[in-house]
Description:
Blueprint: H1 3-20, H2 30-41, H3 44-58, H4 72-84, H5 89-127, H6 132-165, H7 171-200
Helix pairs in contact: 1-4, 1-6, 2-3, 2-4, 3-4, 3-7, 4-5, 4-6, 5-6, 5-7
Amino acid sequence: MTLPFILLCVLAALLELDTTYAFQTLLSRPIITGPIFGWLTGDVAAGIQIGIFAELLFADISPLGGIIPPSGVVASVIPLILYAQGIDLYFGFFVGVLGAVLYSFFDALLRKTRFKWLVFLEKRIGRKPSDITRIITATLLLSFLMTFIFISVLAWAGAQLMFMLYPYFTPRMHFAFRLAYIAVPWIGLAALIPVFRLKTR
C-alpha cells in the first residue's frame, strides 16, 4: 500500500473512534465519511454514492445495549480504496460491507478484552486518581491502533483478493453484482418503512 492509502487508513481509524469511543459528533456516519473518502481518493460522486448506500443499508441497526453495528467507516473506506486501484465500485462495496460486519465482531472481541483490564485499571485509579487522563489516552490510542491495523490489513487483503479473482469474473457475474449493488438502497428503504409507519401512528 502506498503512503496516501496508509494516511487514508489513519483517517478512517480516527473517524471510527467517533462511533462510540470519543467525540460522537456523527462524523463517522457513512453519509459523511463516504464523500470525505471519495474526495480524498479523487471521486466525490463515488464517495457520495457509497455513503448513501451504506447509510441506507445500516440505518436501522442502532448501537443499543450489547448490539455492535457494522462499521459505517469501514463500509465506506474499503470500497473507495479498491475503486481508486481500479476495482469496480459494485465489487468493492460488497467487500466493504463484509469488512464492516467483520469489524463488529473484531470490536466485540476488543471490548471483552478491555473489560478484563477494567478491574486492574479501577484499582490503579483508586490508588492514584491523577492517572485517569493517562489511562483514557492510552486506551483511545490502543483502540485507534487496533482499528488502523484492521482497516489496513483488510484494504490490502481485499485488494490482493480482488486482483487475483478479477480475471475470472465473467460478464454475467459483473451483471449480477451490478444488479445487487443497485438493489441496495431499495433494501435499505424497505427496512426503514416500518420504522416511519410506527412513528406516524
